[in-house]
Amino acid sequence: MRYLFFITLVVLGNVMTNGAFAQPHIYQRLQSQLITVANGDTVYLPKGTFFMEKSLSLEGKKNITIRGAGMGKTVFNFRNQKSGAEGIKIANSYHITIEGLTVQEAKGDAIKAINVTGMIFRHVETEWAGNHQNSYGAYGLYPVLCKQVLIEHCQARGACDAGIYVGQSSDIVVRYCEVEKNVTGINLENSARVDVYNNLSMNNACGILVMDVPTVMVTNGGQVRLFKNKIFRNNHRNFAPKMAMVAGVPSGSGIMVVATSQVEVFANEIIDHQTIGTGVFHYDLIGIETTYEKYNPYPSNISIYDNVYRRSRLVPKFHRKLKNIPFKPFQAPHIIYDGVIDPAKKGKNTLCIRNNQVQDQYPLFANINAAQGFKNIRYNAKKYDCSLPRLNKVWVGFE
To answer: Whole-structure pTM over 0.85, yes or no?
Structure first.
């Protein structure tokens, strides 16, 4: 196995640490070596802050590791980026690992992986410090159309969409990560067979969002397990652009499950949320009304059990189609279900709630009866005291 970049970039790293801005030839050296790196190589990056004006890309490679000196030690800063839709792009590859580095202030997405089988993000940090008033769709870690994805020990801050996003992908594990100050901390969209556990999601607008949307190639995901996560105080304002899909998610949400089937939410601590602890919703309440074929907008087979709930005493911030829910002040429940039932599944258990611990005086549950304009809200959860078949552990193949 060969080791590239080390000698070249040690010099560059020392220059950058001393406060100089990168010159075009630095980007050219980096990019040319990413193009010529042989399959099976490990790319070592030294300490330093490197200011990039263009996207870096790796494409059509196998068994490559890109390894920095650590988060906050090897830093790629794109605040002066002039071209490219992301900071780093990895495409059409097999078994790629990126670890031990930080990407800051990318013009669009920080690190995007598309059509990769066997993608590992480990000890990677993404960050935006600004207010994103003029940005759209910025994701931190962004694997899409991928298979066998492992994201572990990563951090993501300041994304105007999702800190960690996995879209239209399958066989995914997200664990031991920290996400904060994003619109959504972790967003699973149209993805199948996903385990998300032992993560800390705090001070986002929404802690974890599981959602299927109609306007993509893979229309329906599912078989998602969210467990043993600490989901704390996700009351940040929703600063997504108005046309972004996540702009419809209420600020102050812990976990939102929208138009997805087979989801287990268990053994999480869901603490101090202003609006919703856990929400289960039809797509039209959060997104734009749709009649797309081969798309099912109804959530189904959702299990919520063995979680710990405690609410914030802040006034809920329901907005858009949810703004007229007539909850009395300080009486919003922890778990909110819209009550919109898939006509094909009438009479079947589509939602099961059991053994959750409430550590305050708020109600555990409410069916808000959205189809009837939020009339006759029902707080009794006995109808939903049931069990659904347990989902299988997700294996990505290289844990």
So the answer is: yes
